């Protein structure tokens, strides 16, 4: 069967299933089955390239799962983030494009912060697949990054991705509060965190999130901000004066997170936007 016909058929089925980007997902699934890049696939598609029966059978299984709204990233085993790819699967939060905005801003701050003899000490809390810490390490060679994740299911992904993409980083499996108790006062320059922030009573609209992302990475208490409070409680003690904390949150939580930062004694607090102009993360400097 010609690839152009396959792509058209798969995209139609995914569109009927409510998938947000059916054509892109179709291309990603077919390129995964064939074992070539999406660009190579599209180039070959216009030369009459065909798929044989074994590939079509494998593709059918993947399309059926995607039609049931299983995340594309689970099916192909990877997620892209700022020019690199990390391994993902059941049990680990799939990194989102909107988090790239915080990563880019964190990299900018890290590249311009004053550095002592100890180098630049960065914590990536609620690290999940490890994308924030990996992005920082790849862009800021003098950074010493420690990535912390509590989940038994997510931690192997963090360990694998860090070993492959930023082996100089330290990975720790620990509860946030327990880990914080091991740190000295004023021993850290920057903290980045993408904590769970959905209120317990809310159900995400997308089945990919509601049915497949781990609840531990999604839900943050009655108002969604329990772990944010834990991050700030740790940050106000372990950050050096002038140190920076950056926390991702929903587009509706900017005001609340700014107030929590102010209550914790941070200064120069701002809420920044993601790539589509929605409030996405708040940052503040320790007094």
What does it look like?
- The protein is α/β, with parallel strands linked by helices and 287 residues long.
- The protein folds into two domains: 3-68, Ubiquitin-associated (UBA) domain (Helicase, Ruva Protein, domain 3); 89-286, Vaccinia Virus protein VP39 (Rossmann fold), CATH 3.40.50.150.
- 44% of the residues lie in helices and 20% in strands.
- The chain is built from 13 helices and nine strands.
- It has helices at 3-16, 22-34, 38-45, 53-67, 72-76, 99-112, 131-139, 155-165, 176-180, 207-212, 215-218, 226-238, 254-263, and strands spanning 78-81, 84-87, 120-125, 143-149, 170-173, 188-193, 239-248, 266-273, 279-286.
- The strands form two sheets. Strands 5-4-3-6-7-9-8 form a seven-stranded mixed β-sheet, sandwiched between helices.
- Helix 1 packs across helix 2 (22-34) and helix 2 runs antiparallel to helix 4 (53-67).
- The mean pLDDT is 96.
List keywords for this structure.
9 strands; 7-stranded mixed β-sheet; Rossmann fold; alpha/beta; 287 residues; two-stranded antiparallel sheet; Helicase, Ruva Protein, domain 3
Q: Structural class from helices and strands?
A: alpha/beta
> Beta-strand level of the residues, as a percent range?
15-25%
Rg for CA atoms: 21 Å
**Assembly status:** single chain
Largest sheet: 7 strands, mixed
- Terminal residue distance: 65 Å
**Which architecture name of the largest domain does CATH use?**
3-Layer(aba) Sandwich
Q: How many H/I helical runs? A: 13
CATH topology of the largest domain: Rossmann fold
Q: What is the string of SSEs from the N terminus onward?
A: HHHHHEEHEHEHEHEHHHEHEE
Taken together, the total number of domains comes to 2
Helicity, as a percent range: 40-55%
Arithmetic mean pLDDT: 96
């Amino acid at each position: 069967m010609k690839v152009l016909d396959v792509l058209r058929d798969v995209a139609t089925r995914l569109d009927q299933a409510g998938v947000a980007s059916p054509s892109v997902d179709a291309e990603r699934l077919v390129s995964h089955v064939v074992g070539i890049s999406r660009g190579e696939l599209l180039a070959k598609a216009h030369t009459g390239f065909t798929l044989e029966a074994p590939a079509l059978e494998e593709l059918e299984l993947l399309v059926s799962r995607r039609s049931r709204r299983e995340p594309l990233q689970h099916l192909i085993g990877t997620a892209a983030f700022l020019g690199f790819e990390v391994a993902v699967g059941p049990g680990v939060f799939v990194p989102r494009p909107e988090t790239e905005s915080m990563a880019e801003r964190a990299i900018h701050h890290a590249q311009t912060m004053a550095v002592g003899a100890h180098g630049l000490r960065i914590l990536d809390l609620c690290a999940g697949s490890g994308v924030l810490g990996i992005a920082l390490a790849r862009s800021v060679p003098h950074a010493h990054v420690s990535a912390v994740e509590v989940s038994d299911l997510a931690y192997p992904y963090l360990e694998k991705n860090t070993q492959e993409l930023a082996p100089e980083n330290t990975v720790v499996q620990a509860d946030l509060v327990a880990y914080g108790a091991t740190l000295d006062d004023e021993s850290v320059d920057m903290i980045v965190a993408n904590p769970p922030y959905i209120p317990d009573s809310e159900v995400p609209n997308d089945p990919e999130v509601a049915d497949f992302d781990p609840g531990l990475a999604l839900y943050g208490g009655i108002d969604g901000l329990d772990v944010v409070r834990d991050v700030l409680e740790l940050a106000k003690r372990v950050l050096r004066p002038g140190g920076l904390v950056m926390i991702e949150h929903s587009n509706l939580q900017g005001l609340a997170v700014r107030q929590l930062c102010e209550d914790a004694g941070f200064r120069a607090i701002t809420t920044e936007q993601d790539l589509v102009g929605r409030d996405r993360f708040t940052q503040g400097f320790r007094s």
